[in-house]
Amino acid sequence: MLSSLAKVAALALMVDATSAAAITVSASRIAGSAVSDVYPPSSTSANPSLFPSEPVVGFPGPTPTGLEAAAAQTAPAYPYNNGPAKSFPLVAPQPHGVSTFGDNFDITRYWGNLSPWYSVSSADYGLPNASPLIPSGCTITQLLLLYRHGARYPTSGAAPSTFATKVANAARVGFNVTGELSFLANWTYKLGAELLTPFGRAQNFNLGVEYRQLYGELLNNFTTQGAIPVFRTQSQDRMVKTAENFAAGFFGVPEYLSQVNIEILVETPGVNNSGAPYEVCNNSNVASRGSIGSTVAALFANNAFNATLARLNSEVTGNLTFTPTDAIAMLQLCSYETDALGYSAFCPLFTVDDFLNYEYYFDLSFYYNNGPGSPVSAAQGKGFLEEWLARFNHTIPPANSALNETFDNSTTYFPLNQSIYADATHEVVVLDALTAFNFTALFNGPPLNYTVGNEGTNTFVASKLVPFATHFTTQVLSCPARNQTKQIRFIVNDAVIPVSDSHPGCPVDPDGLCPFNTMISALTNRANQINFNYDCFANYTAAPGHDYNGRAPTS
Ligand SMILES: *[C@@H]1O[C@H](CO)[C@@H](O)[C@H](O)[C@H]1NC(C)=O
Ligand SMILES: *[C@@H]1O[C@H](CO)[C@@H](O)[C@H](O)[C@H]1NC(C)=O
Ligand SMILES: *[C@@H]1O[C@H](CO)[C@@H](O)[C@H](O)[C@H]1NC(C)=O
Ligand SMILES: *[C@@H]1O[C@H](CO)[C@@H](O)[C@H](O)[C@H]1NC(C)=O
Ligand SMILES: *[C@@H]1O[C@H](CO)[C@@H](O)[C@H](O)[C@H]1NC(C)=O
Ligand SMILES: *[C@@H]1O[C@H](CO)[C@@H](O)[C@H](O)[C@H]1NC(C)=O
Ligand SMILES: *[C@@H]1O[C@H](CO)[C@@H](O)[C@H](O)[C@H]1NC(C)=O
Ligand SMILES: *[C@@H]1O[C@H](CO)[C@@H](O)[C@H](O)[C@H]1NC(C)=O
Ligand SMILES: *[C@@H]1O[C@H](CO)[C@@H](O)[C@H](O)[C@H]1NC(C)=O
Ligand SMILES: *[C@@H]1O[C@H](CO)[C@@H](O)[C@H](O)[C@H]1NC(C)=O
Ligand SMILES: *[C@@H]1O[C@H](CO)[C@@H](O)[C@H](O)[C@H]1NC(C)=O
Ligand SMILES: *[C@@H]1O[C@H](CO)[C@@H](O)[C@H](O)[C@H]1NC(C)=O
Questions:
Q1: How far away, in angstroms, is 300 Cα from ligand 3 center?
Q2: Model confidence pLDDT, tens digit, residues 458-495
Q3: Ligand 7: which residue has its CA nearest to atom 5?
Q4: Whether residues 357 and 285 fall in one domain
Q5: Is the per-residue pLDDT at 496 higher than 60?
Q6: Is the CB of 306 inside a 6 Å radius of any atom of ligand 3?
Q7: Helix (H, G, I), strand (E, B) or coil at 309
Q8: What is the domain-level CATH number for residue 268?
Q9: Which of 177, 181, 186, 316 most suits a substitution to test ligand 1, by most atoms within 8 Å of the C-beta?
Q10: Which atom of ligand 2 is nearest to the CA of 406?
């Protein structure tokens, strides 16, 4: 239901948009009249021979399933829809010990890339009065969405399964646990790998529902063109399911099967794909280049959890001693089990400080692996940036990054006239893209300190930018009252991103708007400055503690 105020606002917008043609106003615009839904255009349908399905495309990656959840029987609390966990239907307990946050500490917001996405405030980045609602005097004409898959199991070989093996080995010799660790005596490892969890499916479905509610009117543009959109994703099983769940939320079931073409791009080593650039960017995994963040995050974790480790080690006897690596593994089990099974007995082992340090562990990892502290993040985000520019420029994008020219050099696979674009990808790629787009307001402050811990001097927080189902939105707007009618702005998880300091020519604007042509020219310059071949393949050495603006040092 719209509030009556919102109805008036909606009506005002409608009147504003059509005021020039007021004399010829059609019956469909008469107040109170009903208009029929016009999407999809007649005689259109998805084309599975041009856009083949997951089994035809192949390259789904590993797909080990997990064991079934049984929260109704085993969870310590029922997932009431008015309970303390803001991410229904997850159950999130309060941390161990006394909390300065009272009993309102939402642990799920301190899980870095394992957090469920939550609304971020524009004020966090310097636009205290901005709203993601279309600014008054403007109407939206085009929308571009880059979004991440929802909650998944751990990736293959991640810390939780290693920890489970360690516990199983100790159990064969025999160990005893007491107090809050008692559950470990009977704990079993239930997680699969790589796949979306039920909650993860819901996140992408709900995002589709939300975007249909917010922007469904833009579908009328397809009706005028007599075409249906192409939405893109990668071939990994969770990526295909992500795009399908998003489309199911957006178009409905079974309409999503016929009202959109889902393009599945192969994700595998050596194959170009703007949604998986690390597959063709050799330096992305080199310790002294693309994975500085993993190293400094592990260094930080070595000292961050001592008090809790001492407490937990005092509650176990036998051949089992918990290390800093295990602290991270158990915190990850808290996140992954909650995201997959609905709750986790590992969560209440950790204090508020532990969760704050866990978030900072992810902050370090992402700032230096895929943010401005990485020498190879802008290069990896360049493919998406070039595609973004190409869509607005109505030209084939240049083949000088990870994008796949075979597809992008074809308006069938890479249409240039859509009013709605939706691309699914991974969180690392979302962050690479935000870096490539030079959104420095998201990383405002000195490089993150990995020795003393979180100094709180940088705006970057991983769970705000790279959580499950994170989404980066471009709004193209028509604002007749402005000097330049065509305007553009950017939103990440509901926070409007200021661009006046980072995009030459963009004025200071409380709504984050910039004239369209000014932005295209600023981002074209930025794209031209990013040297994919050098950053991804050259032999240079980078170090933590720098803000490289996502690009390789050249000296
Ligand atoms: C573990 O399982 C055993 C056997 O079912 C049971 O007796 C014991 O109470 C359980 N321990 C805990 C801590 O749940
Ligand atoms: C583009 O994608 C196709 C199909 O997946 C693949 O065969 C080709 O190798 C890719 N191009 C490049 C340059 O990686
Ligand atoms: C934390 O424990 C590690 C050993 O795991 C030790 O080297 C380090 O000095 C301790 N740090 C603090 C701050 O106590
Ligand atoms: C565990 O407790 C049992 C029963 O008290 C005892 O027999 C056994 O030695 C203990 N094992 C360890 C490793 O502490
Ligand atoms: C104790 O654990 C360590 C490491 O987990 C392992 O290497 C060792 O073999 C274990 N000792 C026994 C007696 O099982
Ligand atoms: C935009 O299109 C023009 C020609 O219409 C072309 O010269 C230019 O390189 C294109 N820019 C980008 C970023 O693709
Ligand atoms: C697009 O692909 C066709 C066929 O591979 C090729 O002939 C043409 O040069 C390509 N155009 C561009 C702009 O890359
Ligand atoms: C549909 O959207 C595209 C992209 O914004 C735009 O170029 C075109 O003019 C629109 N068509 C109509 C009829 O609004
Ligand atoms: C419009 O242009 C005028 C004159 O150049 C300038 O003073 C004013 O600030 C501009 N307004 C906006 C909203 O950019
Ligand atoms: C990126 O933003 C910074 C401000 O944070 C600015 O100094 C720089 O010129 C921008 N780079 C480009 C290529 O626009
Ligand atoms: C990269 O540069 C370093 C330092 O100059 C040198 O030691 C190393 O051999 C070079 N590696 C390659 C593969 O060229
Ligand atoms: C971290 O802070 C410490 C203490 O202020 C300082 O000595 C160190 O240089 C800082 N490191 C980085 C990478 O900023």
A1: 10
A2: 999 999 999 999 999 999 999 999 999 999 999 999 99
A3: 406
A4: no
A5: yes
A6: yes
A7: helix
A8: 3.40.50.1240
A9: 186
A10: 1
Structure tokens at 337: 């089990």
Q: Are residues 264 and 337 in the same domain?
A: no
Chosen domain end from 313, 339, 363? 363
Claim to verify: residue 248 and residue 329 sit in the same structural domain: no
Asked whether residue 20 is assigned to any structural domain, the reply reads no
User: Residue 73: inside a domain, yes or no?
Assistant: no
Give the residue numbers spanning the domain of 422. 115-153+195-290+374-537
What are the Cα distances from residue 503, in Å, to 17, 123, 384, 518?
Answer: 28, 19, 18, 8
Q: Is 529 in the pocket of ligand 10 (CB under 6 A)?
A: yes
Helices within 83-197 (DSSP H only): 159-173
Provide the domain count of the chain. 2
Residue 390 Cβ contacting ligand 7 at under 6 Å = no
d(CA 154, CA 138): 43
419 belongs to a structural domain: yes
What is the pLDDT, as a whole number, of residue 333?
Answer: 98
Tens of pLDDT along 344-403?
999 999 999 999 999 999 999 999 999 999 999 999 999 999 999 999 999 999 999 999
What residue's CA is closest to ligand 2, atom 9?
A: 271
Are 303 and 284 contained in the same domain?
no
Q: Is residue 442 assigned to a domain?
A: yes
Closest Cα to atom 14 of ligand 7: 409
Beta-carbon contacts of residue 333 (< 8 Å; ≥ 6 apart)? 160, 163, 344, 346
537 lines ligand 1 (CB under 6 A): no
Judge if 199 and 176 occupy the same domain: no
Q: pTM (2 decimals)?
A: 0.92
Q: Which atom of ligand 2 is nearest to the CA of 399?
A: 13
Are the C-beta atoms of 251 and 228 separated by less than 8 Å?
A: no
The pLDDT of residue 84 is 65
Average pLDDT, the chain: 93
Please state whether beta strands 420-425 and 261-265 pair in parallel, antiparallel, or not at all (unpaired). unpaired
At 5, which amino acid appears? L
410 neighbors 474 (Cβ within 8 angstroms): no
What is the average pLDDT across 172-190? Answer: 97
* Ligand 8 site residues, Cβ closer than 6 angstroms: 141-142, 221, 224, 417, 419
Residues 217 and 299 occupy one common structural domain: no
Same-domain status, 261 and 232:
yes
Same domain? For 404 and 458 the reply is yes
